[in-house]
Structures are given as structure tokens and as C-alpha cells.
Specification:
Length: 504
């Protein structure tokens, strides 16, 4: 090396890279008081590096790492996202401290805050904690399994998460079951009462998963719910822990399925959560199928609901894995932005839906208070056009009249439950105004949606939704009125509102 300057610079880069090489940790205490450790392992080579980021729930690869002085840049890649997607970070080393921040921070999200890591060793090989060891045998090649015959129309019921999250218990489930009957929800078709996350206790000495102290006797609870003409659902996942950090089913899937069948469970929501730490992307379908087969082996009819946020094109394999429904998105929130982004984003998935196997754009927020009654009617119309599972997520014990009228509108429910089982799709979009249609066993359902903030007039020509009759029979499903119409129809649609029609 002739140039001493370049030589010194290279030396500095190499020594900085050597400083970076090793294991770094970031510790934080979650809302529930549990300690969460994020481990970064960097492997350096001159001025570049690779490595991985590991938590108790996932591992991401570190790629494209570059060291310049005490500054570093790198990308992370999560194998469960689309292959090309990366997240970029920059960092600064100061002795045994490394501060890391995303290059494009998500707006207002948790990920925007810089992390201060401490170097804990020079170890460049990651060894997962013993409780994160992957102990499963390799899966045989994936083969589709035949349908279980359940959910010939989209499942209807109630789930605890949207309203109660961790505050669900035996008493509340019983009261909800009572209210499902007294409010008319059961008779409108809502039969599944589903307990979501936070019911789980620990495995007993025989490896049998027990409920925690909030649910003293699951069998007695199932008997109570069944006696009301309702069915009981439960929640777990293929990882070691659920999303809320409770015991999930990894390594004891068959035993769990047996336990649930013995209790009298009728529906399982199986949520991916921490399973990214246990499985690779090419194992996901098999990890779901493992539970589908375990449920079937019990001989009890149990609806199987996949929840993995729509990753890896789940519509293409969810039914083959044994699923009756599969989530297509991340979690819904009780606001217009979240609901409308999810709902109007479902166009194109109709090819995967049909009797026995449904796309699930997540549970309903109707009655939770974050949207107007108009917006909730849009929510319900859209979900029924999408042949979505109708799983209410409100406090059924204390519903407003408007929430009840929306959730139990028989004419809208009939669209969702139409026996043809076709999922609706977008016909036309002009700015904030959209026309959607759903083919029915007789005629067609048509939604005229106004996503904008001001009332607007929407006109539809019947021929554009495939109706050829000269003056078809048209029914307004919210006004509960027949409408006279010729070749086209026009209506003023309120801001964030819908005119929902059945045309024959
Ligand atoms: C995930 C799911 C939610 C809910 C929670 C429970 O976020 O997507 O629907 O089940 O877990 O922890």
C-alpha cells in the first residue's frame, strides 16, 4: 500500500469492524412487566458485515452491513415478508454502546425510537435460549387435505379480543352468551362465542394445557354456552407463545386438540405470533396442517381459523392446509382509516373464497364506539359483500340500538350468508366513489360506497353489474324498501356511507 492515508483508513475500518463483531443486546420491560431481550449478532469481514436480530418471537437476517468509522448501516430481512422487502437501519458505536435507528421510521410507531444496545460478548454465532430450541421433526412434503365439511357459509359469532383483550374471563363469557340470546344476536345467526388470547395457563404434569385462574372450568363453560344454543371457540397458535405471551401449542398440538375436544370446543383460532422463531417460511402451511389433522383426529367438528395476517399468499394454500378461514390482514382497529383500508383492500382475493373456505379481513368493530353509525353500516355492508366471517367484537351486554340494528339486519346478513358463497369485488372506482358487487344465488348485491368526506351522488348502470333485466327488482337493504328503477339508478350517498342494494 503506497498511500499511508488510505492504509490508516483501512486499518481504522478493520479495527472498528472488529469492535462491532460479536453479540449485542437490548433489554426492555413490556407492559405486562415481562422482560424482552433483542439480540444482535454481527459477523464482520473488513468493512462489511452480516448477522441476525433475534427476539423470543422471531429472527431476522442482517444483510448489506457497512462500517464507516464509528457509523454503521445495514438492512434487515424477515423471511415471512415478500422476498424483496428490507428495512434499513443506521447506527453509531461508542465503546460498548451501539445506538440503532431506522432510516425510514414508521410514522408514530414504536420502531421509530432509537435502541441503545450493549455489547455482551465477542461471540459471532447465535445460540437461541433453550426454550426457543426448534425441536420438531422435519415435515413431510406438503399435501392438500380434503375439506372438513364445516363453514359452508361464512362463520358468524362473537370474539372477545376487540373489546376485552386481556380482560376476558369465565363470567364475562357467560354474560355475553346470555346477551347473545336476549339481544337477538343468536337468532340472527351469530352462534360462535369465541375466547381469544389470555385464557391459557400452563401444562400440567401430564403435559395437558390448563386454563389460567380466569377460567376455572372450561368444560362447565362449554356446557353453559351449548345449553344456550351457542358454540364455544378458543385460541392458540403454532409457536411456543401466543401474541400476548401465554402458552401456545408448539410440541403438544395433538394433546391440545384432544383437550379442547374433551372440553367441547367448536372453533379454534390459531394465531402465528411467535411461530416465526420456530419455523421457516416453507414450513408455515405444514405447521397449520399439523393442527388441522390433530383437530380432525379428535372426531369433533371444529372450525379451523388461520391467523397469520395474510403472509405468504395464504389464500393459495389455506384451504389445502385444512383451514375454514384465514386472516388476510394485520389487526383491525376501531377507526375509519383502519376499517376502510382493510375492507376496500380486499379486491382480488375473491378467487380463494367459497363454501368451506373463506378470506377473513378480521373481526367486526361495530358497537365499539370509534366510528359513526354510518361508518359501521359501511363496515357491515362491505364485510357482507366480501363474504367475510361476521364475528362481532363489541360488548353485546350493552349495545346501543343502532349497533344492534346494524349487526342484526337480516337483509344484509342474508347477502353475507348467500349459499353460492361467491366473494364480492370492485366494479368501478372514481376517486372516493366505488361500486362493488357480489354475485348471489339469485341476482346480485351492489354496494355504492362514498369513501370521501362529503356527500356525493353515485350512478350505476345495471348492465355494468351484470343485470340485464329492463327494469329489475331493486331492494334497499338498509332502508328496507323496494325501489323502482330502469336501466340505471342514482343515489346521494353520505360521507363514508353506503347505499346497499339487492338487484334481481
Ligand atoms: C393477534 C391477532 C389478534 C388477537 C391478538 C391476541 O394480534 O391478530 O386478532 O388474536 O393476537 O393476542
Amino acid at each position: 500500500m503506497r498511500n499511508p492515508g488510505v492504509c490508516l483508513l483501512l486499518l481504522a475500518m478493520v479495527s472498528r469492524a472488529a469492535d462491532l463483531a460479536g453479540t449485542w443486546k437490548f433489554e426492555q420491560t413490556g407492559r405486562n412487566g415481562q422482560k424482552r431481550v433483542t439480540t444482535y449478532v454481527f459477523k464482520t469481514s473488513s468493512g462489511t458485515f452480516t448477522g441476525l436480530v433475534a427476539t423470543a418471537t422471531e429472527q431476522r437476517d442482517i444483510v448489506n452491513g457497512v462500517v464507516r468509522g464509528n457509523q454503521i448501516t445495514f438492512d434487515t430481512h424477515f423471511e415471512f415478508y415478500e422476498p424483496g422487502r428490507i428495512d434499513s437501519y443506521r447506527g453509531e458505536m461508542n465503546g460498548d454502546q451501539l445506538t440503532i435507528a431506522p432510516v425510514n421510521p414508521p410514522q408514530g410507531g414504536r420502531g421509530a425510537v432509537p435502541l441503545v444496545l450493549q455489547k455482551t460478548s465477542n461471540e459471532t454465532v447465535f445460540t437461541p435460549a433453550p426454550e426457543l430450541a426448534r425441536t420438531h421433526k422435519p415435515f413431510p412434503p406438503f399435501r392438500p387435505i380434503p375439506p372438513n365439511g364445516l363453514a359452508q357459509t361464512p362463520p358468524m359469532g362473537w370474539n372477545s379480543w376487540n373489546k376485552f383483550a386481556g380482560r376476558i374471563d369465565d363470567r364475562t363469557v357467560r354474560e355475553i352468551a346470555d346477551a347473545m340470546v336476549s339481544s337477538g344476536m343468536r337468532d340472527a345467526g351469530y352462534v360462535y362465542v369465541n375466547i381469544d388470547d389470555t385464557w391459557e395457563g400452563t401444562l400440567d404434569a401430564n403435559g395437558v394445557l390448563q386454563p389460567n385462574q380466569k377460567f376455572p372450568d372450561m368444560k362447565a363453560l362449554a356446557d353453559y354456552v351449548h345449553a344456550k344454543g351457542l358454540k364455544l371457540g378458543i385460541y392458540s397458535g403454532p409457536g411456543r407463545k401466543t401474541c400476548a405471551g401465554f402458552e401456545a401449542s408448539y410440541g403438544h398440538e395433538e394433546q391440545d386438540a384432544k383437550t379442547w375436544a374433551e372440553w367441547g370446543i367448536d372453533y379454534l383460532k390459531y394465531d402465528w405470533c411467535s411461530a416465526s422463531a420456530m419455523y421457516h417460511r416453507d414450513e408455515m402451511a405444514s405447521a397449520y396442517q399439523k393442527m388441522a389433522l390433530a383437530l380432525r383426529a379428535t372426531g369433533r367438528p371444529i372450525v379451523f381459523s388461520l391467523c397469520q395476517y395474510g403472509w405468504l399468499d395464504v389464500g393459495a394454500w389455506g384451504a389445502a392446509a385444512g383451514g375454514n378461514l384465514w386472516r388476510t390482514t394485520s389487526d383491525i382497529r376501531d377507526n375509519w382509516e383502519s376499517m376502510s383500508r382493510i375492507g376496500f383492500g380486499q379486491d382480488g382475493r375473491e378467487k380463494f373464497a367459497g363454501p368451506g373456505h373463506w378470506n377473513d379481513p378480521d373481526m367486526l368493530e361495530i358497537g365499539n364506539g370509534g366510528m359513526t353509525d354510518t361508518e359501521y353500516r359501511t363496515h357491515f355492508s362491505l364485510w357482507s359483500l366480501l363474504s367475510a366471517p361476521l364475528v362481532a367484537g363489541n360488548d353485546v351486554r350493552a349495545m346501543t340500538e343502532a349497533a344492534k340494528q346494524t349487526l342484526t339486519n337480516p337483509e344484509v346478513i342474508a347477502i353475507d350468508q348467500d349459499k353460492l358463497g361467491a366473494q364480492g369485488f370492485r366494479v368501478r372506482k372514481a376517486g372516493d366513489l366505488e361500486i362493488w358487487k357480489k354475485p348471489l344465488s339469485g341476482g346480485v348485491a351492489v354496494g355504492l360506497f362514498n369513501r370521501g368526506g362529503d356527500a356525493a351522488r353515485i350512478t350505476v348502470k345495471w348492465e355494468e353489474v351484470g343485470v340485464t333485466a329492463a327494469s329489475p327488482w331493486v331492494r334497499d337493504l338498509w332502508a328496507h324498501k323496494d325501489i323502482r328503477s330502469d336501466a340505471e339508478f342514482a343515489a346521494d350517498v353520505p360521507a363514508h356511507g353506503v347505499i346497499f342494494l339487492r338487484v334481481q
